[in-house]
Design a protein that fits this description.
Layout: H1 4-31, H2 33-37, H3 46-67, E1 77-80, E2 83-90, E3 100-101, H4 106-135, E4 139-143, E5 146-152, E6 155-161, E7 164-169, E8 171-175, E9 179-183, H5 186-202, H6 208-214, E10 218-224, E11 229-236, E12 242-248
Parallel strand pairs: 2-12
Antiparallel strand pairs: 1-2, 2-3, 4-7, 5-6, 6-9, 7-8, 10-11, 11-12
Helix pairs in contact: 3-4
């Protein structure tokens, strides 16, 4: 029959062991990279890991670009609802004059903005991917490549061309095609934005009701500001994708 002191000592020992086990689990949790990324690792499908790792970042960047007229840090903008919205067409002539297009290559500009904005996150995701391979017993090598974003019909594709990953565990496998695909109608919205800008630059304004009649799944609004600025907001009613921009054209000053 055990004495009371012995029982107390055993309980203390069990408590110490439990604390050590919990400490080890916590240490492993914080050190394993895949816990940081939230991406599910499958050694046979590294593109899925990169897709999961990057898609939220791409979506966030696209959302910001769409709310600010296509630039992450607009140089020439109108502040509306606490958002700096880029002028895509503008004039400040002392007499009524048509605006000048500020971003003639808007689609290419937005693609470039996406590429620059996600570059750091791309490197982080590939670093985490390599660590997951190593943790699972692979010898892994990575060659970095080029980031290319494309606005395409109903989607945005980020191609990570020339990113080459080789993983060896008994045999060597090579992966050299990584893509991140985001379902988004920015391509379609930009096409309509360009049409509105053409009206602004040629006749001094666009009739948003015409666009609503032409596109049943599109809402277009125009908010006229006191200084002659117009804020156009385009919304896809099916996807809720949105794009807004500023324009200032053919402004009649008080007294004219």
């Amino acid at each position: 029959m055990q004495k009371r002191g012995e029982k107390r000592g055993q309980v203390t020992l069990f408590i110490i062991i439990a604390i050590l086990v919990i400490g080890m689990v916590a240490l492993i949790y914080f050190l394993i990279p895949k816990a940081e990324t939230g991406s599910v690792f499958n050694p046979e499908n590294p593109n899925s890991f990169i897709q999961n790792c990057l898609e939220d970042e791409v979506d966030s960047v696209v959302s910001t670009l769409s709310s600010q007229g296509g630039s992450l840090e607009p140089d020439f903008y109108f502040t509306y609802n606490n958002i700096n919205i880029e002028y895509l067409c503008y004039t400040n002539e002392p007499v009524p004059a048509l605006c000048v297009v500020q971003q003639p290559l808007l689609k290419q500009h937005i693609e470039s903005e996406i590429e620059n904005a996600i570059s750091d996150e791309v490197e982080t995701c590939f670093t985490n991917l390599q660590e997951n391979y190593r943790i699972n017993g692979y010898d892994v090598q990575l060659t970095s490549g080029v980031i290319k974003a494309e606005l395409l019909p109903k989607r945005i594709v980020v191609s990570l061309s020339d990113y080459i990953l080789t993983a060896t565990k008994g045999e060597t496998v090579r992966y050299d095609a990584f893509n991140v695909i985001l379902n988004n109608n920015l391509y379609e919205l930009i096409s309509i934005v360009k049409s509105i800008i053409e009206w602004e630059a040629t006749v001094g304004g666009a009739d948003v009701e015409n666009y609503k009649r032409l596109y049943s799944d599109l809402d277009v609004s125009k908010n006229n500001r006191d200084d002659g600025t117009r804020i156009y907001v385009l919304t896809d009613l099916n996807t809720e994708d949105k794009f807004q921009f500023a324009s200032r054209s053919f402004v009649f000053r008080p007294g004219h």
